[in-house]
From TrEMBL:
Keywords recorded for this protein, A-Z: Cell membrane, Membrane, Transmembrane, Transmembrane helix
Database matches in InterPro entries: MFS_trans_sf (IPR036259)
Domain of life: Bacteria
GO CC entries: plasma membrane
Signal peptide: none
UniProt-recorded name of the protein: MFS transporter
Record SUPFAM superfamilies: MFS general substrate transporter
Topology in the lipid bilayer: Multi-pass membrane protein
Transmembrane segments: 20-43, 49-72, 84-105, 111-132, 144-168, 174-197, 252-269, 281-299, 311-330, 375-392, 399-419
Organism: Nonomuraea montanisoli
Cross-referenced Gene3D superfamilies: MFS general substrate transporter like domains (1.20.1250.20)
Main location: membrane
Amino acid sequence: MSFVADLRIVLKGRDFRRLFGTRLVSQFSDGIFQFAVTGFAFFSPEKQTTALAVAAGMAVLFLPYSVLGPFVGVFIDRWSRRQILVIAPMVRGTLLLAAAALLVAGVPEPLFYAAALAVLGVNRFFMAALGASLPHVVPPERLMAANAVTPTSGTAMTFVGAGLGFLLRETFGGGAYGTALLLVISGVVFGMSALIARTMERSLLGPSYDPDRPQAREAVRNVVVGLVDGARHLLGHRRAAATMGAMAAHRFLYGMATALGIILYRYYFTDGDAEAALRGIGVVVATSGVGYTLAIVLTPWATERFTLERWVPMALAAAGLVSGALILPFQEWGLPVAGFVLGIAGQSVKICADTAVQRDVEDAYLGRSFSIYDMLFNGMYVLAAALSAVILPPDGRSYLAVAIIALGYPVAALIYRLVVRPPVPTPSP
């Protein structure tokens, strides 16, 4: 079934439309926020961006999802999810105002990044509550369609929010005051999602009362044990584990490509012109978004034609060979095209990983499996940025980094094929 058909089906539900609207507004706001932080961290005219600064910025943007991810479920299964959706935007808006004030006051940057981390921590609770609420607003027979359209639409709105952030930055400027205005706008927009959430009944989104549910303190202690059990269960399901591993490999290599692109644009292509560098990266983000959108249409067709087990290594191998060839000349035109290719391949692998985990993993282990998934998805990205901080030269022109990207994808494809290939049966004597 197509994306448009899935969307048309699930939009018939009034409660789904309200939850869907809450997601779209919040992720639109998140796009503005992420662009503001990224622009301030990497493209402020008065700052010198290094690979180490890129790694630190990525850690701020993504580590809360890896660290908090396994634990948020303990609380969203105990607190009113509708109330989380109402209160979290208010808390986040207050934190964004505080972060904007810190910027204007000229406080040391670590204090600003601490405020940004707090914002992202609140956002992690909010997004987890959205995901857990979905089964309460659609009937079981439409849940798969709802799962297909909500993350895709939310990510698309994040791209749109980032685009608006770019336009606003062109108007306000890229200094502390311009970034502070972006943060305030993001907070106001995010607050609108609370107004939408308030239209839903308090008890609509759960959780249901369970007298046998363990206390929160005990549940937190059990998280680590649960993750170990989830990992053990995943390893017993070869296809799901291999596809998740392919996704993790892509995120690592994509993180390295991101760090490489930021430094190349910041210094090698633009000779230190921060505004020109940001415009160049904006084009790469836009082409990546187009590739991401195309993958949504392409992947269902490709997996039906080639099977999931063949499409994943095809996408990985193509990503490495084509992007490597495009980046290697170190010409500015090659990076937007490489972003488009990596957008298609990366989102294709992610869709396949989502499908493999949902299809193969037993329901009792599904939550823990996706906790591991989130940790890998964001943690590998940050790990790649950390490696980039070690190997990238000041201007970003690194043949070693390109070689890692170009060869890493085909190697990941080969390992994936070896893992998912069924064992050859031993002939009976």
